[in-house]
């Protein structure tokens, strides 16, 4: 940038510090035609401009190397454009520090949000919304009577009356269906010995459906007064004084108490028999766990053996009994069915 066209001032000297003497040939107060007269001891200082790294003048130096820059010289040396920029910068700074002045929109650069960040932000918003909705739904389901148990339906009972089951499950009424589990039902039905297992299912809005699996009577055990009705696990499910109340055989203990293992071997065999075969039995006995024998109501005997292969033995016995229902003429009747070795059964 070119230096300012203004020339530096040169002090004028007169005789003995008096007023300046007009130059020869020039009138006092004149213009360019005036000349300056200097004394013999006067010192003339030549000023030259100082430039910064951008080539802009910053001040002046004298010829001897000493700095004579002043605030006025620097102001005169700065170009008008730089002063304008400085003024604009100060105006912007003042505008940004003032709360009432709006920030110029030209100073803000809007960069697009990365796609991955947008997707992550959207996923977070969706997840938070879903969690909030699920929590609200759970609160409505659990803490309001919308799905409260009001009706208990019972199915699968034969020995038991449905009213016995509903009475035992009465503590579940008023509880939300979502909070009633199979363990709750089993715990409440445990005191009822006839119930072997139970399953429950919620039927919205207010019904709990309970399916009962009862213990199946397989034998009668002679007692002092009447009979005990037992299932295949040897659990007493009822008592009766009428021997014909249940179509099951009587366990013949031979007048003495049977060992527990032998008793369970007999009941386990009876539990494996089909219902139509079980109904034809009169008695069941065993001297040990390996010598179970059954007596049919028609007097025929079944040699069962041990409790191994119970299901296979039951199928073989059922097939043999059907095959000998109508014996061929000339053949002797079958009185014994030996299924102790079920893959090689014997009749005689």
What does this structure look like?
The longest helix is centred in the middle third of the chain and has 29 residues, at 115-143. The protein has four domains: 15-83, no CATH class; 113-143; 148-214, membrane protein fhac (Ubiquitin-like (UB roll), Roll), CATH 3.10.20.310; 217-347, Rossmann fold. 29% of the residues lie in helices and 21% in strands. With 348 residues, it is an alpha/beta fold.
Q: What is the strand and helix layout of this fold?
A:
Elements: E1 47-51, E2 57-62, H1 71-77, H2 80-97, H3 115-143, E3 151-155, H4 162-168, H5 182-189, E4 195-203, E5 207-214, E6 217-222, E7 227-231, E8 236-240, E9 250-251, H6 260-272, H7 275-278, E10 281-286, E11 292-296, E12 301-305, H8 310-323, E13 336-338, E14 346-347
Parallel strand pairs: 3-5, 6-9, 9-10, 12-13
Antiparallel strand pairs: 1-2, 4-5, 6-7, 7-8, 10-11, 11-12, 13-14
Could you say what the CATH topology of the largest domain is called? Rossmann fold
Radius of gyration: 59 Å
Please indicate the count of domains: 4
Shape: elongated
The count of DSSP E runs of length 2 or more, i.e. the number of strands, is 14
Structural class: alpha/beta
> Termini distance?
135 Å
Question: What about the largest sheet?
Answer: 9 strands, mixed
Note the total helix count: 8
Beta-strand fraction estimate: 15-25%
The unreliable regions are 13-34, 62-73
């Amino acid at each position: 940038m070119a230096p300012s066209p203004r020339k530096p001032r040169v002090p004028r000297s007169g005789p003995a510090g008096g007023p300046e003497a007009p130059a020869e040939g020039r009138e006092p107060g004149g213009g360019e035609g005036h000349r300056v007269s200097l004394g013999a001891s006067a010192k003339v200082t030549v000023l030259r401009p100082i430039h910064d790294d951008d080539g802009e003048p910053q001040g002046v130096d004298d010829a001897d190397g000493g700095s004579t820059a002043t605030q006025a010289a620097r102001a005169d040396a700065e170009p008008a454009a730089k002063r304008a920029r400085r003024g604009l910068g100060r105006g912007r700074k003042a505008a940004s520090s003032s709360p009432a002045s709006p920030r110029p929109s030209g100073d803000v650069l809007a960069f697009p949000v990365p796609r991955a960040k947008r997707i992550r932000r959207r996923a977070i918003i969706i997840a938070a919304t879903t969690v909030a909705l699920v929590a609200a739904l759970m609160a409505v389901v659990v803490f309001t009577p919308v799905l409260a148990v009001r009706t208990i339906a019972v199915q699968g009972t034969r020995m038991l009356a449905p009213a016995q089951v509903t009475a035992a499950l009465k503590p579940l009424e008023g509880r939300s269906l979502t909070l009633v589990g199979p363990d709750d039902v089993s715990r409440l039905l445990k005191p009822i010995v006839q119930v072997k297992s139970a399953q429950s299912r919620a039927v919205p809005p207010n019904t709990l459906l309970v399916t009962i699996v009862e213990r199946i009577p397989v034998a009668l055990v002679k007692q002092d007064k009447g009979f005990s009705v037992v299932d295949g696990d040897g659990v007493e499910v009822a008592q009766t004084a009428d021997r014909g109340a249940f179509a099951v055989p009587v366990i013949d203990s031979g007048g003495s108490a049977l060992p527990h293992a032998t008793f369970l071997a007999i009941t386990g065999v009876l539990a494996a028999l089909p219902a139509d075969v079980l109904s034809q039995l009169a008695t069941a006995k065993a001297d040990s766990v390996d010598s179970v024998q059954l007596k049919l109501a028609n007097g025929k005997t079944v040699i069962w053996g041990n409790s191994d292969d119970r299901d296979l033995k039951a199928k073989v016995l059922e097939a043999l009994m059907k095959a000998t229902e109508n014996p061929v003429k000339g053949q002797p009747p079958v009185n014994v069915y030996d299924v102790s070795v079920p893959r090689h059964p014997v009749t005689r």
